[in-house]
Amino acid sequence: MIIFYICPAKDLNMQHKIISLDEHIIQSQRNLPYATGELSSLLRDIGLAAKIVSREVNKAGLVDIAGKAETENSSGDDVQKLDVLANDLLISCLRNSGECCGIASEEEDSYKPIKNSYKQAKYVVLFDPLDGSSNIDVNVSIGTIFAIYRRNSFQGDCTLDDFLQKGTDQVAAGYVLYGSSTMLVYTTKQGVNGFTLDPSIGEFCLSHPNIQVPKTGKVYSVNQANYNKYPKGSQAYINHCMEQGYTMRYIGSMVADVHRTLIKGGIFFYPGTTNKPNGKLRLLYECNPLALLVEEAGGKASNGQERILELSPTELHQRTPVFMGSEEMVNDLERLVKEFDA
Ligand code: AHG
Ligand code: MN
Ligand code: MN
After folding, report:
1. Is residue 213 domain-resident?
2. Averaged confidence pLDDT in the chain
3. Looking at ligand 1, which residue's alpha carbon is closest to its atom 14?
4. Alpha carbon separation from 18 to 49, 174, 198, 309 (Å, rounded)
5. Pairing outcome for strands 182-187 and 192-198
6. How far does residue 136's CA lie from ligand 1's centre (Å)?
7. Residue 131 CB less than 6 A away from ligand 1
8. CATH number reported for the structural domain that contains residue 169 in this entry
9. pLDDT in tens, 219-260
10. What residues pair up with 307 in beta bridges, in sequence order?
11. pLDDT over 50 (residue 42)
12. CATH at 312
């Protein structure tokens, strides 16, 4: 069958070639001499899941899927229906992928091995299926965050240790931001690239090549209402930001706050508090993948004393204080933590 595509004249005059996510993944794979195509295939499957979740998020106000599912996740937070849906969609795409031998999700109590009858898959995927879930009902940006590791067990079902790897061991990480447009930003440790979903053709198109975090910035992003519960070093840093005349932006979806920080510079942080000394954000599902992106883009990510990516996880749902963004701002913060919280 011959399919004719009638091309609008302006498309024929295109000055710039459009690079789709799939094409970009394949091109990047060519730079890795021993790549087998399995990671590329896995990333493409995550891209597909992202499009499906994006479709559901966009129609959330139209059909009865928004709102609470009347359950709590294993970390004790309210779970919205869309969280459950995004979680199920990601799991089923990864199950069908054939390249993933197990998943761990913020919405699941434990990891889930995935059995493939025809091959031994190499990778495990950890994700926060819907980040910023308190913003679902109010049409504010939310996201999906993912981290990919090579399994370190040799055969059979994956094990807990396959998931408890340091952030430095990630082979790829990324996020999808469901904002004014849907974007997918990912790294395979060869820089950070951002793609915007063109809904008319259903493709993620390269829109933000080689993202670099500015070395410094003027925006700080923190839930300042918790000021009195923060350790002295974080309080001193907030005072410093105010004295410098920086501006504050806080969306309350980590993925959206970190996205702005990647593009415009600044610092995003969630310190420990008196009632939660390790803060709220999860090392494996949120902090490690976003820290890898920030570092790959030339920024810095710390728990106040050491690199987020160097922390040794001991449990799946572990939380950590986190400070990430423009290198000079994170350095200033670390100096104050050393001075006040030693
Ligand atoms: P999630 O919706 O996946 O549970 O994550 C919410 C997180 C994160 O996105 C955001 O930075 C933070 O919660 C906001 O917390 P506060 O409301 O305590 O500031
Ligand atoms: Mn989250
Ligand atoms: Mn979540």
Report:
1. no
2. 92
3. 252
4. 21, 21, 11, 33
5. antiparallel
6. 12
7. yes
8. 3.30.540.10
9. 999 999 999 999 999 999 999 999 999 999 999 999 999 999
10. 302
11. yes
12. 3.40.190.80
Check if 103 has its Cβ closer than 6 Å to any atom of ligand 1: no
pLDDT single digits (tens) 209-225: 999 999 999 999 999 99
Give me the pLDDT at residue 77, please.
64
> Where is the domain boundary, 208, 239, 256?
208
Token digits of residue 248? 């504050």
Q: Is 77 in the pocket of ligand 1 (CB under 6 A)?
A: yes
Residue 43: is its pLDDT beyond 60? yes
Q: Cβ neighbours of residue 58 under 8 Å, at least 6 residues apart? A: 178, 182
How far apart (Å, rounded) are the C-alpha atoms in residues 281 and 227? 17
**Prediction pTM value:** 0.93
Ligand nearest to the CA of 86: 3
Beta bridge partners of 248: 220
Q: What is the pLDDT of residues 60-91, one digit of tens each?
A: 766 555 556 656 677 666 555 889 999 999 99
Distance 339 CA to ligand 3 centre (A): 34
Is the pLDDT score of 12 beyond 70? no
pLDDT at res. 148? 98
Asked if the structure places residue 263 within a domain, the reply is: yes
Residues 91 and 36 in one domain: yes
Q: Which atom of ligand 1 is nearest to the CA of 135?
A: 2
Is the minimum distance from the CB of 301 to ligand 1 under 6 angstroms?
Answer: no
Q: Which domain holds residue 291?
A: 219-340
What total of structural domains would you count in the chain?
Answer: 2
Residue 288 in domain? yes
Residue with CA nearest ligand 1 atom 11: 254
Pocket test for ligand 1, best of 71, 178, 226, 254 (most atoms within 8 A of CB): 254
32 lies in the same domain as 64:
yes
Burial of 2 (0-12, 13-18, 19+ CB in 10 A): exposed
